[in-house]
Amino acid sequence: ISILVLNGPNLNMLGKREPGIYGAKTLAQIGDETTAFGESLGLSVDFRQSNHEGVLVDWIHEALGRHRGIIINPGAYTHTSVALQDAIRAVGLPTIEVHLSNVFAREAFRHHSYISPVAVGVICGFGPQGYTLALEALKPHVA
Ligand code: DQA
Protein backbone atom coordinates (compact mmCIF):
# COMPACT_ATOMS: atom_id res chain seq x y z
CA ILE A 1 0.00 0.00 0.00
CA SER A 2 1.58 3.24 -1.17
CA ILE A 3 0.98 6.67 0.39
CA LEU A 4 1.88 9.97 -1.27
CA VAL A 5 3.30 12.51 1.20
CA LEU A 6 3.36 16.01 -0.30
CA ASN A 7 5.09 19.11 1.02
CA GLY A 8 4.43 22.58 -0.35
CA PRO A 9 6.40 25.81 -0.67
CA ASN A 10 9.34 26.72 1.56
CA LEU A 11 9.36 23.36 3.33
CA ASN A 12 12.64 22.59 1.49
CA MET A 13 14.10 25.29 3.80
CA LEU A 14 13.36 23.35 7.01
CA GLY A 15 16.29 23.32 9.39
CA LYS A 16 17.27 26.83 8.28
CA ARG A 17 13.82 28.39 8.21
CA GLU A 18 12.49 29.95 11.46
CA PRO A 19 13.75 27.03 13.60
CA GLY A 20 11.93 28.49 16.63
CA ILE A 21 8.66 27.75 14.83
CA TYR A 22 9.50 24.79 12.57
CA GLY A 23 12.33 23.03 14.44
CA ALA A 24 15.88 22.04 13.54
CA LYS A 25 15.22 18.97 11.39
CA THR A 26 15.63 19.13 7.64
CA LEU A 27 12.91 17.92 5.30
CA ALA A 28 15.22 15.07 4.25
CA GLN A 29 15.45 13.88 7.87
CA ILE A 30 11.68 14.11 8.29
CA GLY A 31 11.26 12.19 5.02
CA ASP A 32 13.58 9.40 6.19
CA GLU A 33 11.80 9.10 9.55
CA THR A 34 8.36 9.16 7.94
CA THR A 35 9.39 6.52 5.40
CA ALA A 36 10.87 4.24 8.09
CA PHE A 37 7.74 4.56 10.24
CA GLY A 38 5.58 3.80 7.21
CA GLU A 39 7.52 0.57 6.63
CA SER A 40 6.76 -0.50 10.21
CA LEU A 41 3.06 -0.05 9.41
CA GLY A 42 3.34 -1.89 6.09
CA LEU A 43 2.91 1.36 4.14
CA SER A 44 5.31 2.45 1.44
CA VAL A 45 5.85 6.22 1.51
CA ASP A 46 6.55 8.42 -1.52
CA PHE A 47 7.78 11.66 0.11
CA ARG A 48 7.99 14.79 -2.10
CA GLN A 49 8.27 18.58 -1.98
CA SER A 50 7.56 21.33 -4.51
CA ASN A 51 7.44 25.11 -4.34
CA HIS A 52 5.04 25.15 -7.30
CA GLU A 53 1.28 24.93 -6.94
CA GLY A 54 0.75 23.39 -10.39
CA VAL A 55 3.34 20.68 -9.74
CA LEU A 56 1.50 19.75 -6.53
CA VAL A 57 -1.78 19.63 -8.51
CA ASP A 58 -0.15 17.33 -11.11
CA TRP A 59 1.22 15.01 -8.41
CA ILE A 60 -2.23 14.78 -6.78
CA HIS A 61 -3.77 13.81 -10.15
CA GLU A 62 -1.03 11.22 -10.78
CA ALA A 63 -1.68 9.66 -7.37
CA LEU A 64 -4.85 8.12 -8.78
CA GLY A 65 -4.13 4.45 -9.42
CA ARG A 66 -0.62 4.71 -7.90
CA HIS A 67 -1.28 5.67 -4.28
CA ARG A 68 -4.09 4.78 -1.88
CA GLY A 69 -3.98 7.94 0.22
CA ILE A 70 -2.38 11.36 0.55
CA ILE A 71 -0.75 13.21 3.41
CA ILE A 72 -0.18 16.87 2.58
CA ASN A 73 1.51 19.80 4.26
CA PRO A 74 0.49 22.46 1.75
CA GLY A 75 2.56 25.21 3.43
CA ALA A 76 1.23 28.66 2.59
CA TYR A 77 -0.99 27.20 -0.18
CA THR A 78 -3.13 25.92 2.70
CA HIS A 79 -4.48 29.43 3.07
CA THR A 80 -4.78 30.36 -0.61
CA SER A 81 -5.27 27.38 -2.92
CA VAL A 82 -8.68 26.57 -4.35
CA ALA A 83 -6.75 24.53 -6.97
CA LEU A 84 -5.33 22.12 -4.36
CA GLN A 85 -8.78 21.72 -2.80
CA ASP A 86 -10.26 20.93 -6.21
CA ALA A 87 -7.46 18.47 -7.06
CA ILE A 88 -7.96 16.53 -3.83
CA ARG A 89 -11.71 16.50 -4.41
CA ALA A 90 -11.18 15.36 -8.01
CA VAL A 91 -9.12 12.27 -7.14
CA GLY A 92 -11.24 11.36 -4.11
CA LEU A 93 -8.32 9.74 -2.26
CA PRO A 94 -8.41 9.87 1.56
CA THR A 95 -6.23 12.85 2.50
CA ILE A 96 -4.82 14.07 5.80
CA GLU A 97 -3.63 17.67 6.22
CA VAL A 98 -0.50 18.19 8.35
CA HIS A 99 1.15 21.32 9.73
CA LEU A 100 4.32 21.34 11.79
CA SER A 101 3.25 24.42 13.73
CA ASN A 102 -0.02 25.04 15.55
CA VAL A 103 -1.51 27.33 12.93
CA PHE A 104 -4.33 28.33 15.32
CA ALA A 105 -1.82 29.81 17.76
CA ARG A 106 -0.40 32.01 14.98
CA GLU A 107 -1.58 34.88 12.73
CA ALA A 108 -5.29 35.02 11.85
CA PHE A 109 -4.54 34.46 8.14
CA ARG A 110 -3.29 30.96 9.04
CA HIS A 111 -6.58 30.01 10.74
CA HIS A 112 -8.42 29.35 7.47
CA SER A 113 -7.60 26.32 5.32
CA TYR A 114 -8.85 25.54 1.82
CA ILE A 115 -7.68 21.95 2.34
CA SER A 116 -9.51 21.04 5.57
CA PRO A 117 -12.98 20.73 3.92
CA VAL A 118 -11.67 17.89 1.71
CA ALA A 119 -9.42 16.24 4.33
CA VAL A 120 -10.35 13.26 6.48
CA GLY A 121 -8.72 15.22 9.30
CA VAL A 122 -6.04 17.71 10.27
CA ILE A 123 -2.95 17.27 12.46
CA CYS A 124 -1.13 20.44 13.50
CA GLY A 125 1.29 21.59 16.17
CA PHE A 126 3.24 18.37 16.73
CA GLY A 127 6.25 19.15 14.55
CA PRO A 128 7.66 16.28 12.46
CA GLN A 129 5.71 13.76 14.54
CA GLY A 130 2.64 15.04 12.68
CA TYR A 131 3.68 12.99 9.64
CA THR A 132 3.91 9.70 11.55
CA LEU A 133 0.66 10.47 13.38
CA ALA A 134 -0.93 11.06 9.97
CA LEU A 135 0.29 7.66 8.68
CA GLU A 136 -1.30 5.92 11.68
CA ALA A 137 -4.51 7.90 11.22
CA LEU A 138 -4.62 7.20 7.47
CA LYS A 139 -3.98 3.46 7.73
CA PRO A 140 -7.58 2.38 8.48
CA HIS A 141 -8.75 4.51 5.53
CA VAL A 142 -6.49 2.76 3.03
CA ALA A 143 -6.51 -0.84 4.31
C1 DQA B 1 2.87 25.26 7.76
C2 DQA B 1 1.99 26.41 8.27
C3 DQA B 1 1.70 27.41 7.16
O1 DQA B 1 0.90 28.47 7.67
C4 DQA B 1 2.98 28.00 6.61
O2 DQA B 1 2.70 28.85 5.53
C5 DQA B 1 3.96 26.94 6.22
C6 DQA B 1 4.13 25.77 7.08
C7 DQA B 1 3.32 24.32 8.91
O3 DQA B 1 3.77 23.21 8.60
O4 DQA B 1 3.25 24.69 10.08
O5 DQA B 1 4.69 27.07 5.23
O6 DQA B 1 2.12 24.49 6.83
Automatic annotation (TrEMBL):
Sections of the chain in a coiled coil: none
Positions marked as site (Transition state stabilizer): 17
PROSITE patterns associated with the record: DEHYDROQUINASE_II
Reaction it catalyzes: 3-dehydroquinate = 3-dehydroshikimate + H2O
Gene Ontology MF terms: 3-dehydroquinate dehydratase activity
Record SUPFAM superfamilies: Type II 3-dehydroquinate dehydratase
Binding site for substrate: 73, 79, 86, 100-101, 110
CDD domains in the record: DHQase_II (cd00466)
Entry's EC annotation: 4.2.1.10
Pathway(s) per entry: Metabolic intermediate biosynthesis; chorismate biosynthesis; chorismate from D-erythrose 4-phosphate and phosphoenolpyruvate: step 3/7
UniProt record, GO biological process: amino acid biosynthetic process; aromatic amino acid family biosynthetic process; chorismate biosynthetic process; quinate catabolic process
Origin superkingdom: Bacteria
Keywords in alphabetical order: Amino-acid biosynthesis, Aromatic amino acid biosynthesis, Lyase
Catalytic site: 22 (proton acceptor), 99 (proton donor)
Family membership noted in the UniProt record: Belongs to the type-II 3-dehydroquinase family.
PANTHER family named among the record's database cross-references: CATABOLIC 3-DEHYDROQUINASE
Assembly behavior: Homododecamer.
Function comment: Catalyzes a trans-dehydration via an enolate intermediate.
Protein name as annotated: 3-dehydroquinate dehydratase
Organism expressing this protein natively: Kaistia hirudinis
Gene name of this polypeptide: aroQ
